[in-house]
Amino acid sequence: MASVTSLAATVHQRVADALSAALPEAASADPLLRRSDRADFQANGMLALAKKLKGNPRELAAKVVGELPESEEIAQIEVSGPGFVNITVADGAIVRTLAARAADERLGVPYAEDPGTTVIDYSQPNVAKEMHVGHLRSTVIGDAVVKILEHRGEKVIRRHHIGDWGTQFGMLIQYLEEHPHELDHGGDAPGTAGESGEAAMSRLNRLYKASRVLFDSDEEFKQRARDRVVLLQSGDERTLETWRRIVGESMIYFHAVYDQLDVEVRDEDVVGESAYNDDLQQVVKELEESGVAVRSEGALCVFFDDVKGPDGKPVPLIVQKSNGGFGYAATDLAAIRDRVGRLGADTLLYVVDARQALHFKMVFETARRAGWLPEGAARQLAFGTVLGRDGKPFKTREGETVRLVDLLGEAVERATAVVREKAEQGGLDLTAEEIAERGAQVGIGAVKYADLSTSMSRDYVFDLDRMVSLNGDTSVYLQYAYARIQSILRKAGDTRPAAHPELRLEPAERALGLHLDEFAETLEAVAETYEPHKLAAYLYGLASRYTAFYDQCPVLKAGDAATVENRLFLCDLTARTLRQGMALLGIRTPERL
Ligand code: ARG
User: Fold this and answer.
1) Do 374 and 427 reside in the same domain of the chain?
2) Of the residues 352, 362, 379, which should be mutated to test ligand 1's pocket, given the most ligand atoms within 8 Å of the CB?
3) CA–CA distance, 425 with 423 (Å, rounded to integer)
4) Is 211 found in the same domain as 144?
5) Is the same domain home to 194 and 254?
6) How far, in Å, is the centroid of ligand 1 from the Cα of 351?
7) What is the pLDDT of residues 167-184, one digit of tens each?
8) Residue ranges of the Arginyl tRNA synthetase N-terminal domain (predicted)?
9) Rounded to two decimals, what is the model's pTM?
């Protein structure tokens, strides 16, 4: 496995060297090399530099050009405009660097030089409740970030901080104690994973509704439910047993949704709120002793200068309620101590709805004051809201939150229709099973891609028509580009892809080649800023350039053997780059579509 220096990086280095030779007093100045439409690259760093040194930018640019030695990479270089340096790279250099990438399993992408340990908190649904679009975002974004970081060699520890604790369980457990058969399977035959997940959820819904009715109408039951919470928190074995039944039922449902979403969630990474129960007293003790938290009207609170309510009064983070109960904040604080102290994390990520930004700001600051969290080590990857077509938070017509399973089901159904129609048009003979499998890969890919291709902090409209469209910035478009390449490679038969640096390239080939050259740098930037949408944009750019190449440059009918092989080589590297990039986003690339 060898990492490959991109052509862009090589050219950058050459220009930087020429700049420091031309201007020794600015030895470390950045020539600011960018891709450009005029030439392949343009360096415009000479403008600011000349201004700073009170020189003439065109003269400086000319000096830099004069200092550039002849090289294999640079075919043409000239001063342009007010003092830009325009650079055209050699066709052979493009093909040679790409060949080095193709020879490497990792496509020449290096590992991070100094990887650390990241704990990422994502996909944290709530026990006994349905998963909704908010959980979709957390799951899809978290899964992509995990894959992107792991690919760079970061040690990633996943945490699914599920909502499995709190007073609401008193009601459910008490009801189940009194009606032990409420969760029974009623003899229904075990069906597919999806069906048993649905069945588990409907049993939980039934339990939830029945216990709610009793809780709201029967004062004595209400009291028994409250007493049950105390038993739960003090670790009463029988109560825990019943609680585990409820959690287990929910896990069946969660796993069915994860299967449908094609996301791996491992049981050992599901460490819910309950897991920190035993640490909460210690959290309180340390916060109180250090003075980070103070008692206020009986509750244990942390105050912040810059957090005030509309009335101007400070709004504290409540670690312990006046009745002694612990809330969401206490669990998050205990989790930070565990993640930094025991798991050795140097970075903590939280893929959580932007509407919880204030909570995390206060929790992080509290943990920092308490000495549990180094400054700047924690970060919320805050995501925006999923909107309906009306631009308002996505709801059903009845105004209820949309069930994730329904959404995914509809996406797969739509995608299956697209796949079937396209197969019929293209004369592709797919079995019903193949159509169903591809429909799922296309439909789920469409949902994930629509989510990941917009910057995560932004809201986006859930629009299935657009998501499964064959044209435009969609995963379907990328998947078809990939499948089309596979079909060409199959048709090529014994003619194998081979790089031919001696050939002259067409403009569409150069554009495709220079884009392929940017893969490693793109991944590095995406990992450093936690911005999967930049990877999506890169892949869309790649598929678009491929489409242009495909339209302008015949592959199998190119004529001479060397050109056919070289074009097959570009096809193959494009496909491998697409597949790798899509895999990092959690999206499948079917070989035939
Ligand atoms: N269970 C919460 C919800 O559904 C999200 C939990 C986020 N993670 C955390 N560590 N607080 O909104």
Assistant:
1) no
2) 352
3) 5
4) yes
5) yes
6) 9
7) 889 999 999 999 988 888
8) 9-89
9) 0.95
Would you say residue 190 has pLDDT above 60? Answer: no
Claim to verify: residue 197 and residue 310 sit in the same structural domain = no
- The alpha carbon dihedral of 364, 365, 370, 372 has a sign of positive
CATH code of the domain containing 40: 3.30.1360.70
pLDDT of residue 167: 87
162 CA → ligand 1 middle, Å: 7
Ligand 1 within 6 A of 352 CB?
yes
558-582: pLDDT as tens digits: 989 999 999 999 999 999 999 999 9
| Token pair for 421 | 């129609």
Q: Is the pLDDT confidence value at 317 over 80?
A: yes
Tell which atom from ligand 1 comes closest to the C-alpha of 360.
Answer: 11
Quick check: CB of 469 below 6 Å from ligand 1? no
For residue 95, being part of any structural domain is answered with: no
pLDDT of 500 strictly over 70 = yes
The reported pLDDT for the residue numbered 568 is 98
Q: Does the Cβ of 124 fall within 6 Å of ligand 1? A: yes
Count of the separate structural domains present in the chain: 4
Is 215 in a helix, a strand, or coil? helix
Query: What per-residue confidence (pLDDT) applies to 1?
Result: 61
Q: Residue 316 is part of a domain; what is its CATH number?
A: 3.40.50.620
- Cα(532)–Cα(390) distance, integer angstroms: 26
Please tell me the distance between residue 161's alpha carbon and the centre of ligand 1 in angstroms.
Answer: 6
Residue nearest to atom 11 of ligand 1 (CA): 332
Please tell me the distance between residue 400's alpha carbon and the centre of ligand 1 in angstroms: 20
- Cβ–Cβ contacts within 10 Å for residue 458, how many? 11
Amino acid 204: pLDDT = 94
Could you tell me if 62 and 199 lie in one domain? no
The 3-state DSSP class for residue 235 equals coil
Q: Whose CA is nearest to atom 9 of ligand 1?
A: 161
- 428 and 353 together in one domain: no
The answer to whether residue 94 sits within a structural domain is no
For ligand 1, say whether the CB of 126 is within 6 Å of any of its atoms.
Answer: yes
Query: What b/e readout covers 24-54, taking b as 16+ CB neighbours within 10 angstroms?
Result: eebeebebbbeeeeebbbbbbbbbebbeeee
- Sorted by sequence, the CB contacts under 8 Å of residue 310 that are 6+ apart come out as none
Same domain, 314 and 253: no
Same domain for 378 and 454, yes or no, is: no
Q: Domain of 558? A: 414-584
How many angstroms separate the alpha carbon of residue 404 from the centre of ligand 1? Answer: 17
Nearest CA to ligand 1 atom 5: 124
Model confidence over 512-525: pLDDT tens digits?
A: 999 999 999 999 99
Which residue shows structure tokens 């129960």?
A: 277
Q: Are 22 and 43 in contact (CB under 8 A)?
A: no
Which ligand 1 atom lies nearest to the CA of residue 328? 11
121 CA from centroid of ligand 1 (Å): 9
Q: What is the Å distance from ligand 1's center to 319 Cα? A: 16
ipTM over 0.95? The verdict is: yes
